[in-house]
Amino acid sequence: MNVLVIGGAGYIGSHVVKEMIKAGHSVTVFDNMSSGCEENLFADAGFIKGDILDPVTLSQTFAAADYDAVVHLAAFKAAGESMLKPEKYSVNNITGTLNILNAMCDADVKKIVFSSSAAVFGEPEKLPIDEDHPKNPENYYGFTKLEIEQFLGWYEKLKGMKFAALRYFNAAGYDIDGDIKGLEQSPANLLPVIMETAVGMREQLQIFGDDYDTPDGTGVRDYVHVTDLAVGHVMALNYISKNNESLIVNLGSENGLSVMELLEEARKISGQEIPAEVVGRRAGDPAKLVASSKMAKEKLGWEAKYSDCETLIKTSWDVYKKKAEELLG
Ligand code: UDP
C-alpha cells in the first residue's frame, strides 16, 4: 500500500516507518519537524515537510500522490503540559486531526491508523485495563485522544472511513536492530529521563513517590517496546484493509514494571550510578496501570515480543551511550 505517515520523523513514528517499509509498503513521511529529527528519516521513504495546521499543504500532499492509507502520529503528548496549555492541545491534536480527516475525505482516502493512548481511561477502576474499561481521562491530553476516537467513529458512519485507534500504554525502548538513533528532545517520560541521567545530561532522576500501594512503593506501568508498537500498526492496517472493519484496541505488554525496577535494571546494564532521589508524587499519577491486550492478540495476532525490562533498557542504553560518545568525541 501507499502510506502517508504523519509524524513519521518522531520517536514512535520513525519506528512505524521502518516496520511499514519492512512489510513492503511504500511510505512517505509528513512532518513539521517540531519534535521529529532528520536523523530519523529513512532513505527509502519520501519526505514532505508540512504542518497539519496548514490545510493547503495537506490537500496538496493528497493531490500529489495516490495514498491508500494514513498513519497519524502527529500530536503533543505531555499530559502535565496539557493541563496548563489546553489551547495548544486543542489546536494541534484536535484541529490538526480534523484537518487530516477532511483532506482525506476530499482525496477519497478511506483508511487511517491513529495513535490513541491509555490516557483515555484515567484512574483505573479495575486491572488489567481492557478496551471496555470506563473512559474518564484525568488530563486534557487524554481527553483530546478520546474526542478524536469519537470523531473517527462519526467519519466512519458518515463518510465510510475505516480506522484503527491504537491505545498505546507506555512506549519505551529503541529499534531492536539499532537503526533508529534520534533522541527525543526534552523528554518527560521515565525511561529517557533515566537514560539522560545515565549519560550525565541530567544530574539526577526524580522518583515521583515511593509510598504507592505497589510492591516497592513506586509507580507501576505497562511498558511496551516501540518496535512491538510499530509492528502493531502494520497489523492494524492489514486488519482494517482485509476486514473492512474499524478497530479500537489496546497495545500493552500486560506486564507491570515499577520505577525502581527500571532504575535498577538501567544501573545494571549501563554500569552507571544514575543518581536518584525520591520526591513527592506527581499530580494525576495512578499507582498502577497494566493493559489487557487480549483483543490485540485475538484480532490482530499481536503480542509484545520485546517488552521485557532488559530489552527495553538495553536498546535504549545502546542509543544513548553512542550519542554520549559522539558528543564527547
Ligand atoms: N516517573 C518518575 N520520574 C520521572 C518520570 C516519571 O518517577 O522523571 C514515574 C511516574 O510517576 C510514573 C512512571 O514513572 O509512575 C511513568 O511515567 P511516564 O511519565 O513515563 O509515563 P505516564 O505513565 O505518566 O504516561
Write structural notes for this entry.
The model has no long low-confidence stretch (mean pLDDT 97). The longest helix is centred in the first third of the chain and has 22 residues, at 86-107. The strands form 3 sheets. This protein has a 7-stranded parallel beta sheet, sandwiched between helices. Strands 7-9-11 form a 3-stranded mixed beta sheet. A two-stranded parallel ribbon has the order 8-12. It is globular. α2 packs parallel to α4, α6 packs parallel to α8 (259-270) and α8 crosses α10. The N and C termini lie far apart (42 Å). The protein has 2 domains: 2-172 and 224-251, NAD(P)-binding Rossmann-like Domain (Rossmann fold); 190-222 and 254-322, UDP-galactose 4-epimerase, domain 1 (Alpha-Beta Complex). Helices cover 41% and strands 18% of the residues. It is α/β, with parallel strands linked by helices. Uridine-5'-diphosphate (UDP) binds at residues 170, 188-190, 193, 205-208, 219, 221, 259, 282, 285. Its EC number is 5.1.3.2.
Keywords:
329 residues, alpha/beta, Rossmann fold, UDP-galactose 4-epimerase, domain 1, 2 domains, seven-stranded parallel β-sheet, three-stranded mixed β-sheet, binds uridine-5'-diphosphate
